[in-house]
C-alpha cells in the first residue's frame, strides 16, 4: 500500500487507485476513445457511472411529474431531494441552501438581478478581471443602475489576485465581492477563507465562482466561508446542471426571483426556471462516486469528512501528475506558461500562450491522440490583462484526477512534435 502523510489533516492517505478510478468512467472503455488522452476537462469532464445509471433509471422508470402520490413520481421526487441533501452534506451547508439551475451562467445572471434590486445607488460591488465572463459581465452590468463597480485587478505578470490590492478597494460602501476560487486560464487557487475574512470584516458579502475548482474535489463550502459558491456539475463528473450554495442570511436578504408563493423556500428563490428533474436526481450520482472513492481508499465515513478525504486524494494525485508538465512547459521557449509553475498552488487547468494561433495548435495535437482546446475560453478579460490577444487565444491543457501519468507523457511527446 502506498501512502502519503499529512494530506488529510494528520491522517495517512492512500495513493489513488487509478485503475479503480478509471473503471468508474465508462468513457475509458469506449472503443472510439481508446488511445485518446483527454485534456479539455475544464470544458466538461467525463461522466461517472453512478450519474449515468441514475439518469437512465429516471428516464426509464420515473419520467413523470415528481412529488405526486404514486410510486414512480414519489421515487423521482425522493431522488431529487437525495441529490440536494447529499451534496449539501458534502459541502457543509444546509440542504435548502443548495439549488440547481440550468448552468452557472444562468445562476449568476439571476443572482446578479436579485443584487441589482437589493443595492441602492452609491453602494458598490467588487469584481475581478481574473474571472470567466459568467462571473463578471452580469455583475458589471449593475453599473447601469448607478451601482459603483470596482475592479480587483490581477497582477499582469503572474496572473495572481493579490489580497493587498483587494484591501485597497474595500470600504463600507462595498456590499459584495465576487471572485473565482480558481480561474479557468490562470489555474492558481485563490485563498477563499482569507479573502472571505477580509471582505466580511468590512461588511461585504462574498460570491465565489468554483466552476474551475470543484472538479478537483467538492469543497467544504461551510469551512471556506463564502456566502455564495457556484459550480457546474457537468465539469464535475455529473449532468449538465449549475449548482449553487447560498447561505441563508444572504439568500433571504435578497429579493426573491422565483414565484411569489415559493418565496420562503430558499432553494427556489434564485432558480426561476423549472428544474430538470432527471438531471437534478442524477446529481446524487456525484455523491455516490465521491463516497465510493473514499470507501475504496479506506477513508472516513460521513459525507463531509468523506468528501474532504476524496478531495485530498484527488488533489494529491493531480499535484504529482501535474508537476512534470508544468516543468516541461516552463522550460519550453516556444510557450509561455500562464500562471505559476508550483503544482501545489494550482489546479491542472494549464494555459499556454504560443507564438501562433492556439486553436490551430490544438488541432495539430488531435492526430497524436490528444484532445485539447485553443481559444479564449470566455476568459477574455484575464487574457487581455496579461497581454495575451484573446483572438490568438491560449492552448489549454486541463486534466483531473482520472488522468494518468502516461497520458501526460503522451501529451508532452505530442507537444514536442507540434510546437
Ligand atoms: C470558471 C468558469 N466559470 C463559469 C463558467 C460557466 O459555467 P456554465 O457553463 O455552467 O454556465 C465556466 C464555464 O466554462 C467556467 O469555466
Question: Explain this structure to me?
Answer:
This protein has 419 residues and is of the alpha/beta class. It has two domains: 3-47 and 303-418, Aspartate Aminotransferase, domain 1 (Alpha-Beta Complex); 54-287, Type I PLP-dependent aspartate aminotransferase-like (Major domain) (Aspartate Aminotransferase, domain 2, 3-Layer(aba) Sandwich). Helix content is 38%, strand content 16%. It has 15 helices and 15 strands. The protein has helices at 18-23, 49-61, 71-91, 104-118, 137-140, 163-169, 192-201, 221-224, 248-253, 277-282, 284-296, 303-330, 358-365, 380-385, 405-418, and strands at 3-8, 11-14, 37-38, 98-101, 124-128, 148-152, 174-180, 205-209, 228-232, 242-246, 335-337, 349-354, 370-371, 373-375, 394-398. The two termini are 39 Å apart. It binds pyridoxal-5'-phosphate. Residues 103-105, 132, 134-135, 180, 184, 209, 211-212, 232, 242 line the site of pyridoxal-5'-phosphate (PLP).
Amino acid at each position: 500500500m502506498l501512502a502519503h502523510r499529512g494530506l488529510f489533516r494528520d491522517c495517512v492517505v492512500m495513493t489513488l487507485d487509478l485503475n479503480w478510478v478509471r473503471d468508474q468512467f465508462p468513457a475509458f472503455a469506449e472503443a472510439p476513445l481508446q488511445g485518446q488522452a483527454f485534456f479539455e476537462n475544464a470544458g466538461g469532464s467525463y461522466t461517472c457511472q453512478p450519474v449515468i445509471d441514475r439518469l437512465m433509471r429516471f428516464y426509464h422508470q420515473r419520467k413523470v411529474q415528481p412529488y405526486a402520490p404514486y410510486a414512480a413520481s414519489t421515487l423521482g421526487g425522493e431522488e431529487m431531494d437525495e441529490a440536494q441533501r447529499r451534496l449539501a452534506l458534502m459541502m457543509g451547508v444546509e440542504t435548502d441552501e443548495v439549488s440547481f439551475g440550468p448552468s452557472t451562467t444562468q445562476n449568476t445572471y439571476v443572482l446578479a438581478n436579485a443584487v441589482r434590486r437589493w443595492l441602492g445607488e452609491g453602494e458598490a460591488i467588487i469584481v475581478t478581471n481574473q474571472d470567466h465572463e459568467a462571473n463578471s459581465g452580469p455583475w458589471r452590468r449593475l453599473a447601469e443602475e448607478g451601482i459603483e463597480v470596482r475592479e480587483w485587478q490581477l497582477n499582469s505578470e503572474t496572473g495572481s489576485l493579490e489580497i493587498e490590492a483587494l484591501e485597497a478597494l474595500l470600504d463600507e460602501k462595498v456590499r459584495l465581492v465576487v471572485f473565482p476560487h480558481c480561474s479557468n486560464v490562470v489555474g492558481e487557487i485563490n485563498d477563499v477563507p482569507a479573502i472571505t475574512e477580509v471582505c466580511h470584516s468590512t461588511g461585504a458579502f462574498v460570491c465565489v465562482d468554483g466552476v474551475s475548482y470543484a472538479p478537483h474535489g467538492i469543497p467544504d463550502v461551510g469551512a471556506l466561508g463564502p456566502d455564495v459558491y457556484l459550480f457546474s456539475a457537468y465539469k464535475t463528473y455529473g449532468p449538465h446542471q449549475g449548482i449553487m450554495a447560498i447561505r441563508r442570511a444572504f439568500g433571504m436578504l435578497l429579493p426573491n426571483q422565483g414565484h411569489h408563493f415559493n418565496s420562503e423556500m430558499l432553494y427556489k428563490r434564485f432558480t426561476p426556471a423549472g428544474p430538470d428533474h432527471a438531471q437534478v436526481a442524477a446529481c446524487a450520482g456525484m455523491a455516490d462516486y465521491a463516497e465510493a472513492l473514499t470507501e475504496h481508499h479506506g477513508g472516513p465515513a460521513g459525507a463531509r469528512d468523506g468528501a474532504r478525504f476524496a478531495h485530498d486524494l484527488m488533489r494529491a494525485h493531480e499535484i504529482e501528475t501535474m508537476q512534470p508538465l508544468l516543468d516541461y512547459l516552463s522550460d519550453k521557449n516556444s510557450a509561455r506558461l500562464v500562471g505559476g509553475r508550483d503544482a501545489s498552488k494550482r489546479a491542472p487547468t494549464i494555459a499556454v500562450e504560443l507564438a501562433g494561433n492556439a486553436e490551430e495548435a490544438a488541432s495539430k495535437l488531435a492526430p497524436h491522440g490528444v484532445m485539447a482546446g485553443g481559444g479564449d475560453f470566455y476568459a477574455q478579460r484575464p487574457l487581455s490583462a496579461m497581454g495575451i490577444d484573446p483572438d490568438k487565444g491560449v492552448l489549454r491543457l486541463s486534466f483531473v484526477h482520472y488522468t494518468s501519468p502516461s497520458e501526460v507523457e503522451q501529451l508532452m511527446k505530442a507537444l514536442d512534435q507540434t510546437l
